[in-house]
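Thread: Modeling a multi-component assembly for a lab meeting

Hi all, long-time lurker, first post. My supervisor asked me to bring a structural picture of a complex we are working on to next week's group meeting, and I have zero experience with this. I have the sequence lines for every component (413 residues in total). Could someone generate the structure of the whole assembly? Inputs are pasted exactly as I received them:
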Amino acid sequence: MKVKLWGTRGSLATPGPGTIRYGGNTSCVSVEGENGTLLVLDAGTGIRALGRSLPPDLKRVNILLTHLHMDHIEGLPFFAPLRRQGVEVQICGPASTTRSLRKRLLRYLSPPLFPVSLRELVSDVQFNELPSGTFEIDEFSVSAQLVIHYNPTVGFRIQGPQATMTYLPDHEPALGGLSFRSNKEWVSGYALGRDVDLLIHDAQYTRQEYQTRYGYGHSTIDHAFQFAELTGAAHLVPFHHDPDHDDDFLDQMISQKVAEMEPDFQVTPGKEGAVFDLGKGIS
Amino acid sequence: MAQHEIEVILARHLAEQLVMPIFIVSPSGDLLFYNESAEPILGCRYDETGVMPASELANIFQTVDQDGNPMNPDDLPIMIALTQRHPAHKRFWIRGLDGALRQIDVTAFPLNAQAHRFLGAVAIFWEVHE
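Re: Modeling a multi-component assembly
Sure thing. I ran the full set together rather than chain by chain. Output:
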């Protein structure tokens, strides 16, 4: 299983000299199986570069959306395979209590917010609404579960033949209490994150920032570490960086937390372009 | 270890912040959680008991109607919320672990979640002082 980060920024794309190392693109991660199965986690602005990197003879791609906030769907119409005839694109996302996934995406992918409508894309686009549960995509077993964030939002646990990874880019498990509980069954996302090889988790704020952003649906770097410890993750990737946090700030924030907590698990800052070849290391 | 559904976790968080007694039960009637305000009614702390099976819960409360007759458990708001899956409200009397008879209002509502998932019910108790 090869995991690559194409966009690690939260909330708003943040290009510029201060974000060169961590990247300015919003959430997008690719997961490639040993048999060539491709899963795309979220369609933030990072998905554009991913689309350009894919071979022209690509037949099928699965896009798994955690939720429909703009920073997670903004890059969708710029994903090159969507404009190729003969490509099957499966888009999975959380169900809502009212409109279908397709109709909700159309609110963005139609004029006046966007000049091209979903209907005009020539690829074969299919929509699948996700309740909680587990489903198979070729060699992967994918579990989706609602987690604490604004509006219906799911996290994903992806199990391959050799390794398991969990993706929780927007998640506030600490909502309702500043410390995690000893009863793991009461922690949002626990079932998704339990004993995974790689955990990509929201770490948008510092502890100080969280004082005024409590309930915004995001975690602090402390929460991300606590969650990784609670779930027994082997490797944590802090992700969904705040637009106001530049490279130097993130270096300091993450290294300081590692020094302070001395975690039992490995920590790799979520940087655009990072590749995790699970079972083989980082490149 | 199984994890509670997110709607149940959020219900617990809300209950913990409110001062009226609140109970959260599973679809099978097990008491999953009760807040601090509900502890005097049950006579024990949640941290000590954890999840309480429905059978045990039934032994703790004695419920009587306005005329002093024992109530049919099926007529309790929480049972209506669980079995009929719609909100219910009723005023009746309970005798808790301390032996005192209290008149209470109870409002219960089902946790009907997305994708046709039924997650249990929530009951709010309110002691009536008349």
